[in-house]
From TrEMBL:
InterPro entries: FTB (IPR026872), PGGT1B-like (IPR045089), Prenyltrans (IPR001330), Terpenoid_cyclase/PrenylTrfase (IPR008930). This is Protein farnesyltransferase subunit beta. Keywords: Metal-binding, Prenyltransferase, Repeat, Transferase, Zinc. Binds 1 zinc ion per subunit. Residues 61-384 form the Prenyltransferase alpha-alpha toroid domain. Belongs to the protein prenyltransferase subunit beta family. Its EC number is 2.5.1.58. It catalyses: L-cysteinyl-[protein] + (2E,6E)-farnesyl diphosphate = S-(2E,6E)-farnesyl-L-cysteinyl-[protein] + diphosphate.
Length: 399
């Protein structure tokens, strides 16, 4: 077998490829559980993809393909979404944020159409926004609408945000133990808290007279989420999870209360989530790699770095090259969009968070890349392109 003259497509793996695979893949230790089989299957698919790509072929971000796929969805969504779809605001956010990271310009008439459509999600009675026109208000829906409007960043979009109505809804969701309910009769968890604190912060509510009512008990609630392994669960006693760890930690960063949790233990937990062979992150212990955790777990490193006032200070504690490689090689599709992992289909959610994670790898890690593959720098607290969030903060500081 020659390792010097790779042919395309290669007929047999190189010795180097086989050695890397043998060392890094999961060991079965003679226990062939369902989870071992699932992990083995994913690793084999990743290996096949890597083996089929000649080593000299550079990784490429298929920017134009992603932009045209996302733009098609943006044109179609406001008219085409079913009225009962509760993710209409989320779909808008995933598309707009992805386009921003890719450096695409959303035409003003299209942005205006989205703003007008999102305005129909407002609940005039309790405040906030529902998941679609006529739906009940929900903190996650309100978050997705506000973040879409911030991502669009036009004056029309930002002027359409009614902070008084938003405050009314957020205060109705606040619970005695400091947590937030997602909706009337809904569950309380750290996602609801992050959504509330994030949008309250952006529109300036944490500087107002009601700030104490919003933030009371938040830090101690997040502290109660930290598990024995250092990660944060969604509610007290729940299993540590990448998305919930992000929500809890980002909340503490906004409130300047990072010391409420054991950040060293959380960092240990985050470090262990990067998959040895695939290079992407898993969201929980003993689970499969998934591109959306490229952001949820990847962002924990710059957020933890903020404690030392150095967001890039944790860059050596995750392998940014490996993360970038997983996103571009295994999650990206050549005809546009990103998927969770090889063998699954592309979707808007994974496209958004894979690109956000790519930005973390490039701007807060040490991922080597050339200008053609670079995406915009993301703000790891708010998950909006940095230039957009800076403009939005400036806008609301003057209103
Ligand atoms: Zn996922």
């Amino acid at each position: 077998m020659s390792t010097n003259t790779p042919s395309y497509p290669p007929s047999v793996p190189t010795e180097r490829e086989l050695t890397d695979f043998g060392v890094q893949r999961v060991q079965h230790e003679n226990i062939f559980s369902d989870t071992w089989h699932a992990q083995h299957y994913v690793e084999q698919r990743v290996f096949d993809i890597r083996h089929a790509r000649p080593p000299e072929k550079p990784l490429v971000l298929f920017r134009e393909k992603h932009v045209s796929w996302l733009m098609r969805h943006l044109q179609y969504l406001p008219r085409g979404s079913e009225s009962f779809d509760v993710l209409q605001g989320w779909s808008c956010f995933w598309i707009v944020h992805s386009l921003n990271l890719l450096g695409a310009t959303i035409p003003v008439p299209t942005a205006s159409m989205v703003v007008k459509h999102l305005a129909t999600f407002k609940d005039p009675v309790v405040g906030g926004y529902g998941g679609g026109p006529g739906q009940s208000s929900h903190l996650a829906s309100s978050f997705s609408v506000i973040m879409t409007l911030c991502g669009l960043g036009t004056e029309e979009a930002l002027m359409s945000i009614d902070s008084v109505s938003l405050l009314r809804f957020i205060l109705q969701m606040k619970q005695a133990d400091g947590s937030f309910r997602v909706s009337f009769g809904g569950e309380t968890d750290v996602r609801a808290m992050y959504c509330a604190i994030c949008i309250a912060s952006i529109v300036g509510l944490l500087k107002g007279v009601e700030a104490e009512k919003i933030t009371r008990g938040c830090a101690s609630y997040v502290k109660s989420l930290q598990g024995f392994d250092g990660g944060l669960g969604g509610e007290p006693g729940a299993e540590s999870h990448g998305g919930n760890s992000f929500c809890g930690l980002a909340t503490l960063v906004i409130l300047d209360e990072l010391d409420a949790v054991d950040t060293g233990a959380l960092l240990d937990w985050a470090v262990m989530r990067q998959m040895a062979y695939e290079g992407g992150f898993q969201g929980r212990t003993n689970k499969l790699v998934d591109s959306c955790y490229s952001f949820w777990v990847g962002s924990l490193f710059p957020l933890l770095g903020l404690k030392a006032r150095a967001p890039a200070g944790m860059s050596k504690l995750f392998d940014a090259d490996a993360l970038q490689r997983y996103v571009l090689e295994c999650a990206q599709l050549e005809n546009g969009g990103f998927r969770d992992k090889p063998g699954t289909s592309r979707d808007l959610m994974h496209s958004c968070y894979a690109l956000s994670g790519l930005s973390i790898a490039q701007h807060f890690g040490e991922a080597k890349h050339d200008a053609k593959n670079e995406v915009k720098k993301v703000d790891p607290v708010f998950n909006i392109a940095e230039d957009k969030i800076n403009y939005v903060k400036e806008f609301f500081s003057q209103t």
